[in-house]
Amino acid sequence: MQPEHHGDHGDVADLFTQATWDARYAESDRIWSGRPNQRLVEQASGLTPGEALDVGAGEGADAVWLAGQGWQVAALDVSEVALARVAAHAEEAGVGERVVTVHLDVMGGGPLPGAYDLVSAQYLHPPAERLAEIVGILGAAVRPGGTLLVVGHHPDDLATGLRSGHGHPELLFTPDKVVAALPADEWRVEVADAQTREVSDGEGMVTVTDTVVVAIRR
Ligand SMILES: C[S@@+](CC[C@H](N)C(=O)[O-])C[C@H]1O[C@@H](n2cnc3c(N)ncnc32)[C@H](O)[C@@H]1O
Hints:
By secondary structure, this protein is of the alpha/beta class. It contains 6 helices and 7 strands; from the N terminus they run ααβαβαββαβαββ. The two termini are about 30 Å apart.
């Protein structure tokens, strides 16, 4: 995932609506790179494929990659424009039968449908005061023995200038904020790290930092 500039400094709640994301996706045929997220590939490559839920699936690069690894994938997003792209990309990649789309507003606060061996949320940044609640909702969709993978932009990235486009720096989160939402008697946390990677900002390479949390449901 590369572009981060939403160009909008309005109400934070507007960052999570279908209208906002449908409009954003409709701006161009493709807004993300089409490549699976590095952290997903790193963390999920060693897992035994089963049923996966990708929350905030975007245009489906992660869902298509997971399906290619043998997973049965539910790609969930608030944007129907994005979900149409997920379905098209899955068909093009020959994994259409292993990817279903789920149109749902995860900020609605209700439980997610189904139970999964892997629930992945890549760069979904809930309002700061709702992060714990949303992590709890994601976690509730993980089967016992299954994996929760939460990846986000770390606040250290604010120094790069790459994450200031939407005007809500408080949306970036540290690993401890995610771990705090995972009761120790229910979860074994395997990874809670700030991990760096190099990306191009259009002029040169910049070091960015991801929050990466992997937890296994007991
Ligand atoms: C920053 S993008 C990340 C997309 C993808 N995971 C990736 O890494 O390329 C955030 C995604 O979350 C989706 N999203 C935003 N608010 C949402 C909500 N309330 N419920 C479900 N999905 C939402 C957006 O439509 C968008 O596709």
